[in-house]
Fold this protein.
Amino acid sequence: MFTQGTTIGGIIVERDGLADFFKENNERYYHFTTPDESYHGLVYTDVPLPNFTLRVRLALLRDIGASQSPHNSWLLLQTIETLGLRVDKHSDNALEVAKFLETHPKVNSVNYPGLESNPDYDKAQKYFKDGKASGLISFEVDSYEAAKAVIDSAKLFSVVVNIGDSKSLIVHPASTTHSQMNAEELAEAGINPTTVRLSIGLENPADLIEDLNQALN
């Protein structure tokens, strides 16, 4: 999704041996192990090709037209050219913002694997190139109302739910993307009512910190 907010796309990566997995879990993945009458009884797991990808191409693409438009493909090609540079900047900015949030008296905790205090810090250093842990941060405040107040008070951050934009984004999941859930459902989904989520963009991190500081106070 790191496409500067212009479009959205993705790829399918299929691992080896997926046919055996489908057969072992036949009740759940019967679409792959039973004859597809729309293709003259084709059984996808009998074909020596990537089974999941094959069914996506033959059935889902046919049925729902899940194919990227030429214009969206062009936009992705343009933004991929600067992806590496932008991810580095997203990550560097996010680390500065996360360090600030970690010291703020009105922030109870910060979840960002680039912080040495994070339980996943060692994994981030191992698996992310140069320890660059992306631009995604979440942090906890005292209450649902306090989290909404931060969203309402932010000026530089855009209140948008997507991630990876060149602009910095802020969202309160409990009152937006997951607002249809009750307290029990939120807990089951791992959504804390006091969580604020950030997608740090390419702006000057000092400006982002200043905005968050005034929003929190």
The CA atoms of residues 178 and 186 lie 7 Å apart. The first strand starts at residue 109 and ends at 111.
